């Protein structure tokens, strides 16, 4: 395949990425077939609208409970083996559902339970799957790789339901579950063939709850990641009105059929594919920040068109534009989320992004559904367009990060701390102090620089931080921060990146020349246990 580096197809030159991409398309097609088959099967098991709606709830609910633990697990275990385990779990669930349905043994609660298990597998898979992309392609090809992944999802969404409809009408829903199971085994085969290169671990792996706390601290202290999350919330909350209200527009406003609805959905997928072909050039010329801004404005115009136009054929080009705008925003935000964080916390950061995405879509869909039911569909769409336009103001404050991969590489410049023989490295907490000698005339500028240092300490593991000045000698400043344990402090050493060297250097620039910064480490003392009966 002869393609340039700026081509949207250039990541397909990487063998492992190419096969994983093809396998993921097959798996996503199987997932959409499962959605159709499960929904249709529930209508034959129960006439209750609540039970039919619960199928969708069971498939998406685990995302809100498992995404964050899944991100933590993906960062502390081998991603390949982790993904193999999750894919095998989902294949077993799909196979069991297919067999029970074929034998006529499926009940309402059994279907909901197995759908819940399938949704749990999806929630466990997504952060790890997203975090593998930077390992498969170079940094220059990462935007194109993320775009291709989004294209694959849109292709699956267009093809999967159509195939499922044919299979259900000819054979029955059990075959959609069986095809879904086969699609998981295709992914398993590619993962087995992947020879993932890993660096030997110097320290023991993090524990799950400790990894969750570290991920939360990083997300709370990382401004680049917070900018991505803010822009995602500003877009998806308003943009969710388009897809959530489209079925009502086709059936209620246009008096259309399922075929008409499928046509408009297909246009969304085609628009996404066509838009993906131009994304690399547009991103290179405009930059991600401006591209997301323009695509958000375009999607607001799409919502206005959906509110005002009531002709199916006029909506066809509108939905083509919606697909192009959607993939431009989605791929740009995903790339920004992946490149804004170092590798040690990438899956956890992506889990937070995925949670914001699904939460925004769920909250937005509920909000616009309520507005449409109380007022009208056009009014809800116009309100969503107004909110989307108002969300563009977020671009003035939250700029998408542009981070070089070298800046996120571990600096490893801190000298190894010394632990005296006989002391337990699991003792907690560890207090680290740094003594500075600062000219009083530079004190204000020094404190401003130390605010950036505070953020660096907190996102890399510090559970507390403070900067104080000596009451007797105004030149003396003491910075101290607390890590959970000696082992966590060693991890703190490994997490500091090359980009953060600049933050540290900017603060140490105010240190008086020829006077070294004194660094000390303190462990919490242990009192001898009190003897029984002693007062």
TrEMBL record:
It is a multi-pass membrane protein. It comes from Azorhizophilus paspali. Gene3D superfamilies: MFS general substrate transporter like domains. It is found in: Cell membrane. This is MFS transporter. SUPFAM superfamilies: MFS general substrate transporter. InterPro entries: MFS_dom (IPR020846), MFS_trans_sf (IPR036259), TM_effector (IPR010290). It comes from the Bacteria.
């Amino acid at each position: 395949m002869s393609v340039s580096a700026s081509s949207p197809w250039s990541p397909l030159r990487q063998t492992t990425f190419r096969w994983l991409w093809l396998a993921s398309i097959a798996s996503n097609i199987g997932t959409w077939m499962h959605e159709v088959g499960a929904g249709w099967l529930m209508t034959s098991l129960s006439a209750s609208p609540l039970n039919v709606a619960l199928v969708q709830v069971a498939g998406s609910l685990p995302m809100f409970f498992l995404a964050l633990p899944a991100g933590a697990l993906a960062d502390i275990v081998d991603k390949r083996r982790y993904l193999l385990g999750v894919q095998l779990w989902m294949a077993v669930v799909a196979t069991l559902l297919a067999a029970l349905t074929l034998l006529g043994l499926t009940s309402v609660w059994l279907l909901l339970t197995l759908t819940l298990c399938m949704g749990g597998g999806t929630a466990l898979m997504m952060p790890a799957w997203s975090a593998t992309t930077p390992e498969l392609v170079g940094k220059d090809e990462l935007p194109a790789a993320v775009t291709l992944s989004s294209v694959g999802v849109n292709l699956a969404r267009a093809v999967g339901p159509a195939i499922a409809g044919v299979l259900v009408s000819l054979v029955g829903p059990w075959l959609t579950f069986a095809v879904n199971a086969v699609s998981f085994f295709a992914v398993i085969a590619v993962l087995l063939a992947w020879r993932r290169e890993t660096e030997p671990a110097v320290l023991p792996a993090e524990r799950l709850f400790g990894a969750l706390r570290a991920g939360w601290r990083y997300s709370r202290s990382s401004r680049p990641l917070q900018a991505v999350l803010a822009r995602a919330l500003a877009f998806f909350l308003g943009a969710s009105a388009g897809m959530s209200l489209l079925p009502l527009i086709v059936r209620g406003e246009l008096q259309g059929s399922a075929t008409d609805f499928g046509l408009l959905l297909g246009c969304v997928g085609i628009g996404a594919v066509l838009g993906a072909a131009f994304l690399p050039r547009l991103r290179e010329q405009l930059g991600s920040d401006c591209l997301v801004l323009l695509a958000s404005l375009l999607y607001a115009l799409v919502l206005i068109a959906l509110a005002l136009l009531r002709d199916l054929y006029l909506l066809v080009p509108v939905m083509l534009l919606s697909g192009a705008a959607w993939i431009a925003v989605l791929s740009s935000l995903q790339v920004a989320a992946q490149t804004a964080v170092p590798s040690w916390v990438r899956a956890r950061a992506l889990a937070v992004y995925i949670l914001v995405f699904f939460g925004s879509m769920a909250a937005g869909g509920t909000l616009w559904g309520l507005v449409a039911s109380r007022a009208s569909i056009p009014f809800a769409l116009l309100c969503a367009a107004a909110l989307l336009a108002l969300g563009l103001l977020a671009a003035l404050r939250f700029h998408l990060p542009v981070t070089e991969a070298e800046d996120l590489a571990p600096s490893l410049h801190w000298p190894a701390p010394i632990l005296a023989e006989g002391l337990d490295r699991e003792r907690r907490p560890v207090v680290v102090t740094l003594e500075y000698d600062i000219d009083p005339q530079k004190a204000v500028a020094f404190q401003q620089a130390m605010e950036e240092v505070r953020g660096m300490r907190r996102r890399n593991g510090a559970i507390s931080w403070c900067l104080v000045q000596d009451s007797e000698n105004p030149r003396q400043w003491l910075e101290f921060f607390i890590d959970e344990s000696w082992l966590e402090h060693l991890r703190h050493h490994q997490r500091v990146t090359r980009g953060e060297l600049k933050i540290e250097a900017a603060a140490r620039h105010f240190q008086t020349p020829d006077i070294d910064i004194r660094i000390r480490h303190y462990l919490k003392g242990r009192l001898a246990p009190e003897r029984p009966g002693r007062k």
